[in-house]
Amino acid sequence: MMKPKYCVRLFLFSMLFTVPSHPVDAVESLTVGQAVKTALERNPDLLAARQELEVARGREVKAQLFNRFNPSVNGQVWNRNNPGSGNVTDSQVLLSQEVEVAGQRGLRREAATRNVTQVEAQIKDRERLITGQVMRAFFQALTLEKRLELRKEIEKLNLRIRDASEARFKAGVAPIMESNLAEIRYGQSRKETFVAEALFQNALLDLRRLLGWEPDRSIELSGQLRNSPKAVPLSDLLQRAQGQRPDLMAAKREVARVEATMDLTRRLIVPNPTFQGFYQTETEGPGGASKMVGGGISIPFPLFDRKQGELVTQGGELNRSRHQVIAVTRNIEREVETAFQAYQAARQSVEVFEAEVLDRIDENFRFMEIAYREGKIGLLQLIVVQDGLITAQLSYVDSLGQFRAAETNLAQAVGGQP
Known about the structure:
This protein is about 65% helix and about 15% strand. By secondary structure, the protein is an alpha+beta fold. It has two domains: about 10-65 and about 105-270 and about 305-415, Outer membrane efflux proteins (OEP) (Up-down Bundle); about 70-100 and about 270-305. α7 packs antiparallel against α8.
């Protein structure tokens, strides 16, 4: 791998490696790490998704209950005609309680716990995707900021060329057409600066939205667009992705959840007995009453409904979840390989620029303006050379931005740092 050159002399490129200083009290400084941390705390989509975990924990709390059936109390009072004493009042109190006796409670707790772990993995996957979105948005905004700064410097350069053309015209060494062309060139560069400014501000809006910030909150991007490219073996990346991708964990935990749910459903076929106890009084004559205390048990007979439909449905869910594990595994392999190839291409592009292009751009920019001021080249020659150099400058900035995006995509595909 070619060693990157850090001693780039051109003033236009010095801005690519460090962020220019701004008044500390003017705007809020933001690094990519701070942006990710803020998004994980405040992104509204992520906050909404995390509520699914509270729903799952609520089901787990219910599964922890000692008995999911509440006791039932039934009281009755009635009048009857007693031949010996006339109308008398009798009463009865009935208490009943359904009880699970086949271990359903333990299986229900197991299913609820597995559901919580599966939702936790899903939330982790949402965090992985949000992290990737924020990092891409940050580096996109940083790239557009560097393009804007380049456009501003190009505008200043065209202003100096316009002034030099006007002086050459007044000195009688250049025609009026050359002066007019320089003026048009300067106006065009001003327009491109305005466009670059609008694109940069739109990128900041996207970043603020991901962070959950107000649209008018001031941001100063702090960090380097340039990052040291490094070669990474594809086999190691694939192995790491298989072990740490949360969407694969979620798919595997879904299999375990459905299996636990099927075990519970099979156990629910066993009927729950309902125990009953009663206390009853009966008036037998004047001043006399009999009291009775007793109990009983009722057990439903599972003759028709033996959870056949539920088991068929859950069997389909189990097969689907097992196929989903295979599908997610294949998708991870494809994502990692695709992101790896894009990363390699972006890394090599940056290395070529830094090894073969930057120094030549530096020299040509200095020679070009000096040669024009000394009358060694005409304005048309200057424009041709300048267009090529500007294109190379912007292409280098874009290459850095594409490299950071490819680096982010590869980290997202692996499930962590590449």
